[in-house]
Each structure stands twice: as structure tokens, then as C-alpha cells.
Write a structure and sequence with these properties.
Layout (H helix, E strand, L loop, with lengths): L4 H35 E4 L2 E4 L7 H10 L11 H11 L5 H10 L16 H7 L2 H13 L4 H11 L2 H30 L6 H18 L5 H15 L1
Antiparallel strand pairs: 1-2
Helix pairs in contact: 1-4, 2-3, 3-4, 6-8, 7-8, 8-9
Length: 233
């Protein structure tokens, strides 16, 4: 049936107002907090505004966590940026783009959501090809934003299953990103052979085995099914 004009307008207003509230509260507030943490830091024992965001509070916080993602190729000055961008993505995925705009001092007129060419050079200087793939794959596969997590919680109605679902997504994202960087990086020269490479190869072999292994044969189940069917008669 063709929807009535009133229902269309009502649904449009509800969804539009929902986005406006989120953009005007959560996203705006998080942007202000990120701006403050990136604009101030401790230099020579003095808390002050910083010119280099590598000296900021946000760099210190992100750097302390970034070691977890070092096997994924998130190293050097970009490590804290990639790590912090990933965590801001939990607020809303569009926050990743917003964070890169702030982190790379973008002040252009174009909307980065529409055209990010204004910061391509700066981002490209920090990210190698496989490190960039690793970062994008992790953020594509990892846990969604808080709003989606809330929806998962409501649907499952169980905190343990919700934690397991989110943990699985983050773990799977980490494994795939590790494989991409460690094995792909050998070809591009971004990664060197080591423990991470061995672990990535073993994980890849495990995934391939799980994908290609044969399931239970039908004949193994048919006697049980026949017995069950006979018992029900």
C-alpha cells in the first residue's frame, strides 16, 4: 500500500530529530572533549596548550593503549591517532572521520564526509598501505557504536551474550587485521618476519580449515534420525 503523507512526514521527522539530537549532544560533546585533550598537554612539566599534538593529553592516553595494536602495524606517531580514532568510533562511526580532521589540522571548507582529499597527503605520510588496510578492516569488523550495542543488548536481553557478541566481533577484527598486515606487509616491506608473522599464518590456516572442513556426514545422522522417527510412531 502507498503510505499516507502523514505517516511519511511523521517518520521522517522522528528519524531526523533523532539524528539532530545525537549530532547536537553526543557527537558535539565528544568533539569538544577531543579538541581539549588534543589541544592541551604537559610540556617540560607544565600543563599548557601545545602546538604539536604528539605532546597532547590525547596522545599520551592513546599511546599507552596503542601497544595492543602494534602487531597490526599501528606504530610510530600514527599509533595513538589510529587507536584514538578507533575508540571514538565506538561513540559513532562518523567520529572516526571527525577525529582525523582534528588530528591532521584540517580546516578546509569541504565536508570530510563528502571529500577527504584535503587530508590525503597527511594521512598517507603516516599510514603505509597495509597499515591503512589493517586500520580500515579493524574498524569495519569491530564492535559497532554504542547505540548499536544497546540494540544488541535489548534483542539478546542477556549481558553475557551481549558481551560475547561484542567480544567476538572485536576478536575477529583483530585476527583479520593481524593476518592482513603481517602477511601482506611481508610483500610490501612494511612488516618483518617474526612471531607476529607465525601467529598470523597459524590463524589463517585455522580459518581456512574451519571454512573447508567437511561437516557431519548425512549417513552418520540417518540411523539416529530413523530411530527417532520410529520412536515417535
Amino acid at each position: 500500500h502507498t503510505p499516507s503523507a502523514g505517516n511519511v512526514l511523521r517518520a521522517t521527522w522522528e528519524r531526523g530529530w533523532s539524528f539532530i539530537k545525537r549530532a547536537g549532544t553526543i557527537i558535539l560533546l565528544s568533539s569538544i572533549i577531543l579538541w581539549f585533550l588534543m589541544g592541551y598537554g604537559v610540556v617540560d612539566g607544565v600543563f599548557q596548550a601545545v602546538e604539536d599534538n604528539n605532546d597532547s593529553l590525547l596522545a599520551a592516553i592513546g599511546g599507552s593503549v596503542a601497544v595492543i595494536f602494534a602487531p597490526l602495524g599501528w606504530v610510530g606517531d600514527m599509533a595513538w591517532k589510529a587507536t584514538t580514532a578507533t575508540f571514538t568510533g565506538l561513540i559513532a562511526k562518523e567520529e572516526v572521520v571527525n577525529f582525523f580532521g582534528v588530528a591532521y589540522h584540517y580546516a578546509g571548507e569541504a565536508d570530510l564526509m563528502e571529500d577527504a582529499s584535503g587530508i590525503y597527503a597527511a594521512v598517507g605520510a603516516d599510514f603505509g598501505a597495509m597499515a591503512a588496510y589493517s586500520f580500515m578492516i579493524f574498524n569495519l569488523l569491530c564492535a559497532p557504536c554504542f547505540a548499536a550495542m544497546g540494540a544488541i543488548k535489548r534483542e539478546m536481553n542477556n549481558a553475557k551474550w551481549t558481551a560475547a557478541a561484542i567480544g567476538y566481533m572485536c576478536g575477529f577484527a583483530y585476527v583479520v587485521s593481524l593476518i592482513v598486515f603481517q602477511l601482506g606487509g611481508l610483500a610490501t616491506g612494511e612488516a618483518v618476519f617474526g612471531v607476529g608473522t607465525v601467529v598470523a599464518a597459524a590463524l589463517l590456516a585455522g580459518i581456512v580449515y574451519l571454512l573447508l572442513r567437511r561437516g557431519y556426514r548425512e549417513e552418520n545422522h540417518s540411523p539416529r534420525l530413523s530411530a527417532a522417527a520410529a520412536a515417535m510412531r
